[in-house]
């Protein structure tokens, strides 16, 4: 991770979000220990991304962020095609059902609250 660069910059870790988080649970634990967040893309849905799913479970629902990263990192079943904002729902639904075992509406409410808090909107 980029701990040294962020530490040297003086940025408050509670204002740090790692875009397209693709590391594992240990890296997520360190990010959370420092106060930062991870944001997940369609990579979460890939068969080979168990470490990313473990990181998502480690961060938990209350801190979850999801994103499209359009036009890249398209979730299943559209992998290999250009990504678009509408597909963030697929990543969120996968996170709710297959990763965090919660209902989609609960996940949507939590991610909305997290985004509003983090981005002060």
Describe, in plain words, how this protein is organized in 3D.
The chain is mainly alpha-helical and about 120 residues long. It has a single domain, classed as Metal-dependent hydrolases (TIM Barrel, Alpha-Beta Barrel), CATH 3.20.20. Helices cover about 45% and strands about 5% of the residues. The protein contains five helices and three strands. The protein has helices at about 5-10, 25-35, 50-60, 90-100, 105-120, and strands at about 15-20, 35-40, 65. It has a three-stranded parallel sheet. Helix 2 runs parallel beside helix 3 (about 50-60) and helix 4 packs across helix 5. The longest helix is centred in the C-terminal third of the chain and has 16 residues, at about 105-120.
SSE topology:
Layout: H1 3-9, E1 17-18, H2 25-34, E2 37-40, H3 50-59, E3 65-66, H4 88-99, H5 104-119
Parallel strand pairs: 1-2, 2-3
Helix pairs in contact: 2-3, 4-5
Short description:
The protein has 121 residues and is mainly alpha-helical. The protein has helices at 3-9, 25-34, 50-59, 88-99, 104-119; strands at residues 17-18, 37-40, 65-66. The mean pLDDT is 95.
Tally of separate domains: 1
Structural class: mainly alpha
Corresponding CATH superfamily: Metal-dependent hydrolases
Shape: globular
- The number of helical runs is 5
Terminal Cα separation, in Å?
28 Å
Major sheet: size, sense and barrel closure? 3 strands, parallel
Tally of DSSP β-strands: 3
- What is the radius of gyration computed over CA atoms, rounded to a whole number of angstroms? 14 Å
Oligomer: single chain
Q: Unreliable runs, pLDDT <50, ≥5 residues?
A: none
